[in-house]
Task: inverse folding
């Protein structure tokens, strides 16, 4: 899969820099971007080449809602390699969630440590996929899963990334999990991580966007979607097609200020808010299907 690399330069008052960068990454998701890095004041976005919308990006920048902010960018072809290699080699520290679950970097932990841990253990070997537990949104969704009774339940993981949410659901007792992702890397990574955790027989992984749900039979007890705001709004109707009365929908991947917009869309699909949580301005909403 070919990726386009876009390097952004943001010129503004220092106090606005982080706000502008966060707003830019959120708005740019409409233009095909899947991931961003921010190092040395250079924000770099990655989009599948066939999905990259330069015209939309130019319009978005022209209408950028912050005053006195100048955004320029350069475009290049991303190297045909794993652009997360450095991060993957360095790995991440174990992540504890509510004292009940711990996420380990599979490359940097020994079998004895995992065997002696009394918490639910999840091994993740990330390859160009979002969702190691280091990000607030992933931690919040896992935390909400820990509060549910998933025994013998069916779970759908929309935009499965590394597969961490699918694996967590499986280890919490779900009878079966279906995940899908538009990125081939993520599909392969989810399958690989499911094998690492010994739950590969419980998890089916599909390649594609939410339209793959047209080919999924049955309905789900719990639906998970840790994706960006605009995709959540666009796909909510498709999620509901595979829900039943009482299905729980957990969504994240957006900012606190996006909550009203998402709740407005949810109300159109007979989804009622049960609760929401916020961490460092990132938000997670739990909804119930009428």
Result:
């Amino acid at each position: 899969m070919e990726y386009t690399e876009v390097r952004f330069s943001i010129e503004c008052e220092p106090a606005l820099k982080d706000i502008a960068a966060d707003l830019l990454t959120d708005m740019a998701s409409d233009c095909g971007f899947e991931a961003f890095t921010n190092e040395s004041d250079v924000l770099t976005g990655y989009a599948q080449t066939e999905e990259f919308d330069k015209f939309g990006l130019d319009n978005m920048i022209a209408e950028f809602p912050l005053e006195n902010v100048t955004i320029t960018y350069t475009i290049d072809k991303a190297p045909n390699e794993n652009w997360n290699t450095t991060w993957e080699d360095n790995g991440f520290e174990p992540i504890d969630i509510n004292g009940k679950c711990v996420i380990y970097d599979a490359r940097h932990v020994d079998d004895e440590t995992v065997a002696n841990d009394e918490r639910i253990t999840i091994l993740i070997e990330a390859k160009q996929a979002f969702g190691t537990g280091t990000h607030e949104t992933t931690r919040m969704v896992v935390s909400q899963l820990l509060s549910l009774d998933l025994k013998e339940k069916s779970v759908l993981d929309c935009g499965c990334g590394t597969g961490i949410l699918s694996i967590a659901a499986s280890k919490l007792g779900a009878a079966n999990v279906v995940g899908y992702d538009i990125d081939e890397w993520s599909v392969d990574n989810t399958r690989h991580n499911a094998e690492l955790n010994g739950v590969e027989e419980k998890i089916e992984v599909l390649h594609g966007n939410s339209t793959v749900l047209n080919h999924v039979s049955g309905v789900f007890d719990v639906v998970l979607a840790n994706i960006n705001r605009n995709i959540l709004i666009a796909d909510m109707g498709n999620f509901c097609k595979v829900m039943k009365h009482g299905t729980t929908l957990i969504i994240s991947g957006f900012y606190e200020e996006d909550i009203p917009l998402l709740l407005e869309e949810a109300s159109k699909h007979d989804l009622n808010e049960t609760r929401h949580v916020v961490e460092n301005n990132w938000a997670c909403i739990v909804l119930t299907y009428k």
